[in-house]
Amino acid sequence: MVRGHIRAKTNNIYALVSNELRITNFNGVTDSSPTYRDLACRDIRANTMRVNGGNNLYLAPGPGSEVRVTSAAFYNDGSPNYRGIRASEFERGSSRTYKTQIERFTGSGLGVMNDLSIVTYYMKADLESDSGIEDPRLRIGIIAEDSPVVATRDGLGVEDGRVLFHAVKAIQELDIKIEDTVDRVSFLELENQLLKYEK
Q1: DSSP 3-state assignment of 61?
Q2: Residue 75 resides in a domain
Q3: Does a structural domain hold residue 146?
Q4: CA nearest 34: which of 50, 44, 45, 21?
Q5: pTM value surpassing 0.85
Q6: What are the Cα distances from residue 51, in Å, to 48, 58, 73?
Q7: Cβ neighbours for 78, distance < 8 A, ≥ 6 positions apart
Q8: Number of domains in the chain
Q9: What is the H or E stretch that residue 79 is in?
Q10: Could you tell me if residue 28 is inside a domain?
Q11: 3-state secondary structure at position 76
Q12: Which residues face 121 on adjacent strands?
C-alpha cells in the first residue's frame, strides 16, 4: 500500500467481506452512526441500488443532459440500444416554482395531432441474435424525424409531454366544436318547430 493509495498488484483488487464494503471517515465504526464517504469511479456494476438511510434516490446528469438506460454496450459508437424502465408511477415535475415566462398556449393541438403519422415498427435491437428476445413485439408509435414538433432537441427521440399536452389541447378544441355543433342542431330543431307551428 502506498500512503493515500491502494494499488493492485495485478489487474483487480478483491475485498473479502461477509456483508458490505463500507467507506467511512477516519473514525470508521467507532461512531455510533458511521459517517459515510463518497466513491468516485467511472463504471459501477451491481444488481441493485437503494438509498442509504434517506428517502429519495438522486441521479444527477450534467447540465442539458439526461439519464439514459441502455444495454451493456452503453453509447455503442452513437447507436445505443435503449432499455425499458418499469415503475408504479412516473411523476413529471410541473410546479409553477420550476418555471418562468408562463403563457397560455394558443396554437392548434388538433393540427399537431393530425400531422402525426402513426406507424408500426420493430426495434432493431430486439431483432439482434443476442437480444435474448424470442418473440420481438410489434410496436406502434411515431418516428422522431417525421415529427419535429414533438421531437427531442437532437431529433432522435419524442418528448412524451409534447405529445400528451398537444393531445389534451386537441380534446379541448374538439369539445368546443362539439358544443358548437350541439348549439347549431338545437337552434335548427327550434327553428323547425317554429316553422311547423306557423303552418
Answers
A1: coil
A2: yes
A3: yes
A4: 21
A5: no
A6: 11, 9, 26
A7: none
A8: 1
A9: none
A10: no
A11: helix
A12: 139
